[in-house]
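Field reference: "sequence" (input) and "structure" (output). Example, NAD-dependent protein deacylase:
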Amino acid sequence: MRITVLTGAGISAESGLATFRASDGLWESHRITDVATPEGFAADPALVHRFYTMRRANAAAAQPNAAHLALADLARRHDLTLVTQNVDDLHERAGSPDVIHMHGTLTGALCAACGHRWPAPPVMCPGDPCPACGRPATRPDIVWFGEMPYHMERIWNALDQSDLFAAIGTSGNVYPAAGFAQHARRRGVECVELNLDASANARDFHHRITGPASRTVPEWAVSLV
């Protein structure tokens, strides 16, 4: 069976990582526009670097939960494409191979001048030089609001070739990920949502499983033969 799985903030919330709360425009006490947009970075790069240094430390201290481990096991039994909106590395540390990070990762650094990428140090600052071109244009390798997500062609291809699509812990509010279920369903792919509550795009799924990811994902994964 060919399976494509999309995971969102809900799967890492049980590992203690904060979720994005669009309702009040705040994210870990910061305005989204200040810390997760190109405009925010241009206005105050020091603030943005401090914010992501904090997030990097929080992610490093977190541990994979049962849902992450269940997906790693599922990849050993099926042809699984794992796509995540999350920027932590909990899937990798749980044992999942070849995770597609459509929004980038906290463990990566990017030169805004030349496009070079390298492993992010624990602390990053605006004046950090790019190891390739030497310019002080270092930023987190994170896809901010208003930027194009990574690996989209690979993701659309995986959806087209899947027998099953599952969205786990996603809000259904952020595009293009919110359109994956509709795209897959139009191509005859079975779609299932695993979430605490119905997402904004719940109508696009054939099935819904509600509850915490650490319980529902292992149960669902075991049921796939």
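The domain at 18-61+104-142 is CATH 3.30.1600.10 (SIR2/SIRT2 'Small Domain').
DSSP finds nine helices and eleven strands in the chain.
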